[in-house]
Design brief:
By secondary structure, the chain is α/β, with parallel strands linked by helices. It contains 15 helices and eight strands. An eight-stranded parallel β-sheet has the order 1-2-3-4-5-6-7-8. The structure holds zinc ion.
Amino acid sequence: MAGTLALEEIAVIDNHCHAVESDQQTDTARWRRYFTESPDAVMQADDVAQTALYRRLTRRMAKFYDVPNDEAAVLAARNTHSTPALVESLFRDANIGGVVVDTGYPDPDRALAVDTFVAASRSSYRAMLRLEVTFEAMIAVYAGYHELVEALEERLRDLRAEGYCGLKCIAGYRTGLSIQRWPEGDARRAFAAARAELDATGGVRLGHKALSDTLLHIAFAAAAAQELPVQFHVGYGDPDADLRSAAPLELRAVLEDRSYRSMPIVLLHGCWPYFREGAYLAAVYGNVHLDLSYAIPFLSVGEMTSMTRAALGAAPFTKLMYSSDGARVPELHWLGALDGRRVLGRVLEELIQDGDLDRDEARSTAKLYGFDGAHSDA
Ligand SMILES: [Zn+2]
């Protein structure tokens, strides 16, 4: 593409993504559901195909498989491959060198086994622990509040030794990013309500804010002590996330908390649609990083370019990272890497043309971003 700094030969580290499912044989209805966050049945069945992302993906796959630009032809070609063969060919084509995986979604029972994935993708693999899934499982095990707190502190004491390179927080999907410190009485009452929910329904979904916030503060203290990054879901998601309380400025209490200065905070998904706020936070807080993901949110190339422009336009380059947020199907990891490279190359070329950077500086900026893996620790 004209006016784009070429980055194809540089391997990328995908700093936030998810496992692919072991069963990849698919029909059109199932396939379409991978590419929308809407729970609406008509949106999932029909409208999803009328999006820029879906059209671009279909066109890219048709080229990859050398078949007509047609959904049925593309899926027929895809279905002739085993899951490891799909992963192998797509990861090689996109030159993906490493992945940092949120192990909390999809359910590990549905995910391709890690060793199979690593062998097929030939990528370095690092895992993150999803906090809320851990909390929900532990609330079901411990009948007493004090027992729960002690067990959680023990569980999080040495996360690197357990093979985790960071934590993932989905408070944005639950009780919101305005995470507060609560009196113990409130946390205990919320715990009792969570246990009552468990008794009544057989499960608990952590919508109890005083409890959720309190357990998160225990986790943040552990992360700060171990200097481990915490990745926060911010902004775009299914309507389970209230987009108002999942906005990045809601995190102010955590950002201002001096005891968390040694905890790298990673704001995911470019905070889309709040990408300017995300870029601002990465520009003013030493421990805040902005992660820009290029497969989910489901966006056009132009909108991803706007997000990238805002990020590189305001935040230090050292505070930005690349990801796909790919989940369940390997095409998302693949498309994210192809488009992330293209968009970053385009925006860097603009910075060169504008006199912000010279060509050497632009290439070192790409490396900081994840093209070459400088950020694999976060
Ligand atoms: Zn994710």
